[in-house]
């Protein structure tokens, strides 16, 4: 006598197909874009002949002061990003408009950081003559790469809940290190002047 292997499950619905999460290859695109942006900026900064000055604003004593104050403004808005992210994830109490604050503070931080990066790359280039300057160059390129990856990940659905906080935290940590190796150093060395 042969036994039908399906006899025990007849009359019962078959289990739903296993729901697969996003393929790990899906995260390869943002990682490759991040690497391309970072390497592209570093390569441009290395092969470009530094011009010495990219811009200056009246009322400031030097381009270093302009760059330092703009970097400090970007860092301030990055701090607002951090606090508003903690509000959005329920780690801090906050208003219902915390997500709008998070988006807009991020946009402002990025827009203020762009002229700083342009000045660094065009006027100074990718420098390695001192440990602080080497780290600043590496981290500055890495920041814009990591930021690009974060912006790509924001557009994708069904991300693991831990991914954006990790990438956002990485972007904030790198920007902090960039600020410490530039604006903070400038203010400690030359004083808090305009």
Characteristic terms for this protein:
single chain, 194 residues, mainly alpha, 0% strand
Mind telling me the C-alpha Rg? 24 Å
The helix tally amounts to 5
The mean pLDDT is 87
User: Which segments are poorly predicted (pLDDT under 50) over 5 or more consecutive residues?
Assistant: none
First and last CA, distance: 95 Å
Choose one word for the global shape.
elongated
- The count of strands amounts to 0
Q: Structural class of the helices, strands and pairings?
A: mainly alpha
Proportion of helical residues: 55-70%
Helix and strand succession? Answer: HHHHH
Note the main sheet: none
* % residues in beta strands: under 5%
Secondary structure layout:
Blueprint: H1 28-47, H2 63-88, H3 98-124, H4 131-154, H5 163-190
Helix pairs in contact: 1-3, 1-4, 2-3, 2-5, 4-5
């Amino acid at each position: 006598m042969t036994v039908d292997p399906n006899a025990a499950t007849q009359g019962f619905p078959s289990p739903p197909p296993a729901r697969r999460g996003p393929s790990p290859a899906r995260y390869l695109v943002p990682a490759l874009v991040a690497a391309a942006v970072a390497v592209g900026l570093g390569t441009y900064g290395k092969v470009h002949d530094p011009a010495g000055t990219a811009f200056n604003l009246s009322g400031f004593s030097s381009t270093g002061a302009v760059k330092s104050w703009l970097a400090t403004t970007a860092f301030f808005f990055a701090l607002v990003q951090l606090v508003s992210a903690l509000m959005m994830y329920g780690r801090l109490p906050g208003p219902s408009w915390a997500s709008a604050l998070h988006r807009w503070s991020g946009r402002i931080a990025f827009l203020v950081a762009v002229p700083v990066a342009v000045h660094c790359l065009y006027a100074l280039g990718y420098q390695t003559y001192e440990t602080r300057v080497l780290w600043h160059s590496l981290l500055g390129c890495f920041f814009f790469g990591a930021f690009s990856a974060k912006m790509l990940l924001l557009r994708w659905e069904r991300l693991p809940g831990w991914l954006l906080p990790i990438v956002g935290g990485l972007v904030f940590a790198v920007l902090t290190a960039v600020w410490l190796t530039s604006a903070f150093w400038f203010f400690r060395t030359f004083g808090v002047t305009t």
